[in-house]
Design a protein that fits this description.
Length: 325
């Protein structure tokens, strides 16, 4: 009998991390249809939304309506399906709990500049906040996933020290997070820096099976970085359908590594993702058309340059960028 195929788990972050930076309003019904299609394509881990103030991220102002919808309630009854929801603080956690959420995600920036810009606190304060939320969530019986942002570089402070990343990873694991996702927020990582950081962490006794990779495709290295992390032992990867998302402090940069690209690479290598590629590709075409139609409807009177300038301004001020990973 042949040995079983190697497997990886892909965490689809499109509905939250992918859509939160889209300036034009996306109907809740479109978000729900996207989640349904992603599940139909075989995704077993889908980050749904973030419980956050509408003033911080207007695109996610419908988080309560989305989480209360019958589709989400039905999906949540599947014990094999992970549906994390990002929560920035204890208030967000309590709202998520009241809506029946079973898994939450917390986040820390490894760097001071991005921490101040993103969540208005120091790294130390961010660690305290995230670990407090995690401990309360675990005490309430919820699973908790952790994120560390800016693992390679900060838009304000420059290169990130591996020791700063290790500090955050240890704090989240010690707080009870079942895994910690390493976020290359600016997309500046390379296979060499990915390998170096993972080796640094594992040499410091961080279990590689508790790590996930979250790579952005700013310079076209996202898929290569995923593969390098895989060769280093990482088996969980965040990605976004159609490559949606991106860092608000790098206007014009590409977003998260595309789920379809990651799935295609692994499938070609004989590594099982559980994803139905044709169904996923259909979903990519569908959401791309939906977003194009939304933008053309709401911005039909604007020139391309005017729209580009508007988006640049919104992103640069962080209006649509809070809680980026």
């Amino acid at each position: 009998m042949p040995p079983p195929s190697p497997t990886v788990r892909i965490v689809e972050v499109g509905p939250r991390d992918g859509l939160q930076n889209v300036a034009t309003h996306i109907p809740t019904s479109t978000k729900l249809d996207l989640i349904r299609r992603l599940h139909h394509a075989g995704l077993q881990s889908i980050e749904l939304t973030s419980v956050v103030s509408p003033r911080k991220i207007p695109q996610l102002a419908d988080c309560r309506d989305l989480l209360q919808h019958s589709l989400i309630r039905s999906l949540a009854s599947d014990p094999h399906l992970r549906l994390p929801v990002l929560v920035p603080n204890l208030k967000g956690l309590e709202i998520a709990r009241s809506l029946g959420v079973k898994e939450v995600a917390v986040f820390i920036s490894a760097t001071e500049g991005f921490s101040r810009a993103n969540i208005n606190c120091t790294v130390g304060q961010g660690i305290e906040r995230a670990t407090e939320v995690a401990s309360h969530a675990i005490a309430a019986g919820l699973a908790v996933r952790g994120y560390v942002s800016c693992i390679f570089s900060d838009p304000f402070d420059g290169p990130t020290s591996p020791a700063a990343v290790l500090r955050c990873v240890r704090a989240l694991l010690d707080a009870g997070c079942y895994e910690v996702s390493l976020g290359d927020t600016l997309g500046v990582g390379s296979p060499a820096t990915v390998r170096g950081l993972i080796r640094y962490l594992t040499d410091a006794d961080v279990p590689v099976d508790r790590l996930a990779g979250h790579f952005h495709d700013t310079y076209g290295r996202g898929v290569a970085n995923v593969w390098e992390a895989y060769t280093c032992g990482v088996r969980v990867f965040d990605s976004s359908v159609a490559g949606l998302g991106g860092c608000p402090f790098a206007p014009g940069a590409k977003g998260n590594v595309a789920t379809e690209d990651v799935a295609y690479m692994f499938h070609n290598a004989g590594i099982d993702t559980g994803i139905d590629l044709p169904s996923l590709v259909n979903t990519v075409a569908w959401i791309s058309k939906q977003l194009a139609d939304i933008d053309s409807t709401q911005a039909a009177s604007e020139s391309d340059q005017d729209r580009s300038n508007e988006l640049f301004s919104e992103h640069a001020t962080g209006k649509y960028g809070a809680y980026g990973v």
